[in-house]
Amino acid sequence: MPGSLPSESALLTQNTRTGGSEDPPPGKSEDHPLRVNVVFTTQAGTLAALRTVSRLGAHLGVHPRVLILYAVPFTLPLEDRAVPEGFLEARVRALRRGSPTEISARTYLCRDPQWSLRQMLQPHSLIIMGGRMGWWPTREQRLARALVKDGHEVIFVGVG
């Protein structure tokens, strides 16, 4: 419908891959027998998750895909960013420099990152994510718990 707002299913706005053709949707694998989704939480948490992927999948041909979900405020159109151009790209470059393995990364603009992530993952996806651990469940731990309840296999790597 002309003039209507884009739906949450039209989340993909940018593909930042190290090279080659476009990735299959998250959770599906074409040329890699084991696809691991790494959910971006914080820079330190995501790098810890990537190190874990590297250790666990060193001999399995694991290819991690980093999913970066960025919440766009409702006051802006979904296609707009509330951060300067290049900010998210710089974040991906920093991840690639710090990662012990080659990664592909995808950035998604959405209204509700948790809801969007839960919609885009295939059933029983393998997810590795890192984040703070504390006495009370952190935002990252609550997300990991929600993904487990949805039937996904989640490995949570504690940082700090």
Short description:
The chain is an alpha/beta fold. The chain is built from four helices and six strands, in the order ββαβαβαβαβ. The protein has a single domain, classed as HUPs (Rossmann fold), CATH 3.40.50.
Descriptive account of the structure:
With about 160 residues, the protein is of the alpha/beta class. The chain has one domain: Rossmann fold (3-Layer(aba) Sandwich), CATH 3.40.50. Helices cover about 30% and strands about 25% of the residues. It has helices at about 45-55, 85-100, 115-120, 140-150; strands at about 10-15, 35-40, 65-70, 105-110, 125-130, 155-160. Strands 1-4-3-2-5-6 form a six-stranded mixed β-sheet, with helices on both faces. The radius of gyration is 15 Å and the shape is globular.
User: What series of H and E elements makes up the topology?
Assistant: EEHEHEHEHE
Determine the number of helices (DSSP H or I, runs of at least 4 residues): 4
CATH fold descriptor: Rossmann fold
Q: Please name the CATH architecture.
A: 3-Layer(aba) Sandwich
- Tell me the overall shape: globular
Show unreliable segments: 1-30
Q: Order of strands in the sheet with the most strands?
A: 1-4-3-2-5-6
Instruction: Please give the domain count.
Output: 1
